[in-house]
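Assemble and predict.
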Amino acid sequence: MKLVYFAWLRERVGKAGEQVSPPPTVTTVGGLLEWLRGQGGNYAEALKDLSAVRVAVNQEYAGHEAKIGPGDEVALFPPVTGG
Amino acid sequence: MIRVQTEDFDVGAELKALARNGNVGAIVTFTGIVREFSGNHQLSAMTLEHYPGMTERQLAEIEAEARRRWPLDNSLIIHRHGRLEPGENIVLVITTSSHREAAFEAASFLMDWLKTKAPFWKLEDSAKGGGTWVAAKASDDTAADRWAASAKPARKVAG
């Protein structure tokens, strides 16, 4: 699974993206966020407040209940501020 | 039409291109520009980051939604990314229609939805040094919410 990060989430995680292989029990966006947070260090810090984290799966907005799988691109970013 | 680019755009040239269709009775343009002051601190520049791929996809969906809701002849969204200085253009929205109300409402809708859905993030560089990520505003969410699916479409008003 490919993860990509933007804005301050990218800065706090310390990279723009990475390939990850969460355990098979991780099947939803919410499960992925909890698993990532459990990795500690930068991840725990970046994902401290999940109300400030938006998620897109394959470039579409997704809620915490959305299903995810090995081939997906999952993006984590703060609320958008364009325009 | 959607364009996401680092280069500046020429509002006059874009307007002229869209005005060519003989059926156009109303054109509304909105240009967003980098302000020199954010609250009370002076900016030296801002950097707009975006999510390539998702940005274009979101803008196309927002534009398609506007065209479902209002009888537009044409529409254009240009959004810049990269480093921008105060006074520079950030975003351009143009809507054309036979009548003004559809053009005004659709332009307003496009900006409100773009601000809350298109994956862009602003990093402000302070004139004193240091960068700050701009926080999303609740007022932008409120503005976007007034276009909830139940909102009434434009009345037909003579141009």
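Chain B has four helices and nine strands.
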